[in-house]
Amino acid sequence: MVDHSPFRVVIILLSVIVYATALVINALAGSGKGPFLHKTGDVSAIYETEITPAGWAFSIWGVIYSWLLIMLTYVLTWLCRRSPSGWMYCSPAVLPTGFFLSWIFNMILNMTWLFLWDREEMVSALVILALIAFSNYLLIFFSCCGLAAHGSWLQQHYPKDLWCIRILVQNGIAIYTTWTTIATLINFTVVMNVYGLSKTDAATVSLSFLLIEVLLWFFLENFVIDRHVRYILTIYPVVIWALVGNVYKNFDPKEPGRNAKFTVVLLVLACLLFPFRVGMVIWKRSRNPLM
């Protein structure tokens, strides 16, 4: 029987504390109070782009932060639960230490970006936002490593916890990852505008990157890393949500611009890939179950 691991207890509790702090900072930034000079949305309005979604699309942050809160609440229950080999949070360490360190780093970056955006430091904000997205990819990576190492054990002893990790952890992080990736492209578009590229050309560049990312992910999840990410299904809905918000705001049916047409094509593509992926998961689950 493995005893408590003080270090893992500390980093799990620190993960919760830094998340709670980030929620407070986000609330202050959204309202333009405290140390912030503007509302986050007001700065976005100043630096409008041709791919900025309608304001209501940003309500997805409520879904993201609620999902992540439920995820952390679930992780906290591990501190009070025993497994046949010891305490759930450390024996086995289904979510490795790297997951929690990446989470803490991510939340610090999250708060840093809000201050940079508020001060209109767009280049620095872009770098930080790209690091947020990158650290989110690390979170998915570490969660996959944990399940690769201990998924069979969970399936045998705690199958409900296996699905909790898939749904609460992996799909929750995937929503956050997808949205911050799209936000990075919007911030990138802003920087290109600031440095003289036309709004239309800058938006086209970012939409092209989004197209490449969507197609690359579709290839990887279906043909390269399926066994690790099979049940991550929240990426396409987020892409669809963002593109619908974009079309709602920027598409003029009487005179659609180049990027409006590009966005519609991307939206149709995402709407086709999502059910295809769900169908692939159902088919692979019946023909080649993971465990």
TrEMBL record:
Protein keywords: Membrane, Transmembrane, Transmembrane helix
This protein's record includes keyword Metal-binding: no
Keyword Magnesium: no
Membrane-spanning intervals of the chain: 7-29, 56-79, 86-105, 125-153, 173-196, 202-219, 231-248, 260-283
UniProt protein name: Uncharacterized protein
Organism: Coilia grayii
